[in-house]
Structure formats: C-alpha cells, structure tokens
Amino acid sequence: MPAELEPRPTINLVDPDLYRNGDPFSQWRWLRAHAPVYRHPATELPGFWALTRYDDVRAAYRDPETFSSAKGILLRPAGHGEDPGGGRTLALTDPPRHRQLRNLVDSWFAVRAMRSLEPKLEKIAQTVVDRALELGTCDFVTDIAGRLPLYVICDMMGIPEADWELLYGLTSQAFGAGDAGSQRIAHLQIMSYFDDLRMAKARRPGEDLVSVLATAEIDGERLPADDVILNCDNLLVGGTENTRIAASGGMLALLEHPGQWAMLAADHGLLPSAVDEVLRWTSTATHIVRTVTRPVDIRGTTLAANDLVTLWLPSANRDESVFADPDRFDVTRKPNRHLALGFGEHFCVGNVLARVELRLLYQELINRSVRIDLAEEPTLLRSIVVNGPERMPVRLRG
Ligand code: HEM
Asked: InterPro entries given for it (predicted)?
C-alpha cells in the first residue's frame, strides 16, 4: 500500500519496546509521508521535534550553528540534568571548539592510518573467527562482532591487552539493556579507569590516542583532566557499540537474504558496497539530538530557540524519495548516500575504521567458507539510542 494511504499508527518513538519487538518502520513511514516535522509529546523525556525525511536530516546536519550538539546528542530525562560531556567531547561540542578537538585525533582515523593498520586488523579478525569456530555455537554479537572493534580501539588507545575484556564488559553494561543504576555504575568505572590511564600516559606518553589527549594543548592550554577522560569514553564507546551492532545486524540481514550472501561469496569485489548497504540497512544509531539555537523554519513549521530536534537516521535511510526500493537489502546498491554515520561537522570520526572492520569480518568468514546458521531467534536491543541485535546465537562450521 502506498505510504500516503496507510492508516495512522500510534506514534510513540520513545518506547524502548518498539525497537525490541515492534515496528518502528511503519511509524517512520507514516511520519515521512504525513508529518515530516512532527511534534512528539513529552513523556518522562522532554517533548521534541522529530525529523524523519532524508533531506531534512541532512539539512540539519549541515548547519551546526542553528542545530547545536553542545547540550547533548541523545534524549535524556529532564531530571538527569545536562550531559556531563556537554561542551567538552568531540560529539558534544560545536565549532570552533569541535574543530580543535577533532584536529587532535583526525589523522589517527584517516584512510592512510587505516591502511597501515589493516594487516593488524586482519590478524585480529582471523583470531576472532578462529575462536568462534572452536566454540562452534556462540553468540555472534558478543563472541564475534563485538570483539574486533573492541580490540582495535583498545589497541589504538594504548590500553593494555590485559584490560580489554574488562572494558568490553563495562561498555556493554553502560549501554546495554540493563537498569539505569547499573549503567551509571559501569560508566563511572570507565571514567575512573581512564583517569588512571590518563595520568600514566601524561607521565610516559606512548604512540596512542590516550597519550595524544593526555598531552594535548589547545590555544596553549592543556586539555582539562575531565575533558581527556570524557573524550576517551567517547572514543571507546563510539568505537565499539555501533560497529558491534551493525556487524551483527548486517550478518542477520545476510542470513535472511542467502542469495545476497552467495553473491558476496562469489564476488569479493562487492564487499565495499555490501558494507555500505549493511550500514544503511542497520542504521544502528537510532536518533541523534540537536538543540535549536535560533528560530528556524522547516517545511513551514517554526522551531524556537532551545527546542530539541531529533534526527531519526534509520528513517532517513529508508526515505523512498532518495533510495530506490528502500526496503530491499541489496549488496550491489549504488549510489548509497546513507546517513548511518552522520554527516557534516560531526560525521563519524571512525567512518573509515568502521567500514574496514565490517569488511574484514565478512571477508574472513567468506574466505574460510564458514557456514553460519541461526541457532535461536535473535533478541533485539530494548533501547531508543541504538537498535539491532543484542543476542544472536549461531552455529558455525568451518
Ligand atoms: C557501524 C559503526 C558506526 C556507526 C553506525 C557510527 C555512527 C555515528 C554517528 C551517526 C555519528 C554522528 C553523531 C552526531 O551526529 O552527533 C558518529 C560520530 C562519532 N563516532 Fe561513530 N559510528 C560507528 C563507528 C565508529 C567507530 C569505529 C569509532 C571509533 C572511534 C567511532 C567514533 C565516533 C566519534 C568519536 C564520533 C563523534 C564525532 C564528532 O562529533 O566529531 N564511531 N558515529
């Protein structure tokens, strides 16, 4: 049925159960067709504007002066106060401060840096797949998809290998589906870990990202300790959560579309376009918030200063006016100008790394002719922040 004729679903984009066992796509489809600038009522979260069309999301991304990141980029209950990273982290600053912070780390994630890192990444991918094959039956999310990005970002940050598992547990807990109390505790533990590491690296800097941040100067001043810690947290979480969920969601899509997996196996040249289709299809960052800094008109609706605007990336990436047959998973899709990694000023700093990680993981599974079957139905995350598999038991045969 054409989207214009679909009956109006009940709109509630902030119900976490919607992402575990509901159908957010029908809500987004209706909003794109009928209410692309939608005023979402307050719940325990404040009220906000919801942008669901590709062009509107992209336009907001292009204009960081009007759509600020400095007060937070995720919906938060009003009682939780301001985001502690506001005005301090890569993700939560506006120009010009944002550019200065970004300049500190950009070269570490550039294409050239990734090229020289690739042999190491390839080895890590091999180890991860070896271990999973030994297990035979395992959880694709934790045992395969989560391991590669975690090990890579820990290595880049100069975190001793003995602590990688500890940090994996803490990041999963901090952003998993558990209760708010245990999430907060895990977050505090991550912060405390980085406080110790920051001090150690400031004393004896090495060739790693934490040393860069711990010794960095902007306008002749050292980064304050809290800013170092919060940026480390931003890199660790950014480097692990989304890639893990995208790699798992992508694998699920490939299992559900065996013809597409067979095409990839027959032609490795399709891996780059397949990775972008996985990114579009999974769009793991569900919403991104901006705060309006001055009155702005979007499609005839005026948004006031201090209003919150949400950008729904999975919706933008299924916009029928931009993507041909958007609900078809197609590893050959070209062009594929998805917004899964954001756009503009805050375009994901790990965009090249994420693509390399996804490519190497699928490549390793294909090269080894690993046969993968679902052992149980996957469980999806109960979260409005990131969407995709939380648990995906699989059987592997080499
Ligand atoms: C599939 C994997 C990934 C997805 C879907 C993803 C998604 C995103 C999105 C949507 C943004 C923009 C946020 C905004 O608009 O405010 C972003 C920013 C960011 N991402 Fe990623 N990301 C991924 C992988 C990574 C990796 C591997 C890293 C490694 C460090 C990373 C680190 C960051 C950081 C630090 C930012 C903030 C950049 C800034 O504001 O300048 N991400 N990511």
From this structure: Cyt_P450, Cyt_P450_B, Cyt_P450_sf
